[in-house]
Amino acid sequence: MRILLDECLPRRLAAAIEGHDVRTVQQAGWAGLKNGALLSKIDGAFDVFVTVDKNLPAQNSLSRLTFGVIVLRARSNRFDSLKPLVPMILSKLEALGPGEIALVEG
Q1: Which of 13, 14, 54, 80 is most deeply buried (CB count within 10 A of its CB)?
Q2: One digit per residue, pLDDT tens: the chain, 106 residues?
Q3: How many domains does the structure of the chain reveal?
């Protein structure tokens, strides 16, 4: 599965999500793009977008997208706070379809 991590997530999280092709927004060359432009770039290029932006679903129409979105909620966006969420992220990937949003809380 092709997964894109939002630019506010630590790069180390990509290595922790094993068994998938995980890239960061920076690696894709899309750093600094606003949500609407970023979502357009992701569409067709990735299967899942992982973010901590809890407002993303409210600010954008996601139902027509060709990828799913996982929104992470943790104490912080530091790797130590997010690493325990990895098993739940992997579990959500199995059932997440295009245009769907999954919340992963720690």
Answers
A1: 13
A2: 999 999 999 999 999 999 999 999 999 999 999 888 999 999 999 999 999 988 877 666 677 889 999 999 999 999 999 999 999 999 999 899 999 999 999 8
A3: 1
